User: What shape does this take?
Amino acid sequence: MPKYGRGLNRELVAMVNAGRIREPFGVREVRQLIEIKGWTPSPTENYINCCLADGASESHSSNYKKYFESVADGRYRLRQEFRNGDWL
Assistant: This one.
């Protein structure tokens, strides 16, 4: 069972698709998501950074879904295949 909702990255995909978080996003926007969702305890900075980086890294585990593309240092956007209402 995911720690945060459907999983931190999946929840982030849904919020971007809903227009509640703008791209490019990073740790600050993830913190906004956590505040909106009221998740306690809040994930650590390291956990958030790892989720974002792993969700964009082609060389990370093949079992880890690649939801994001890195566009700058610490900034990401959704991959095209995750831009739809199925995630809301």
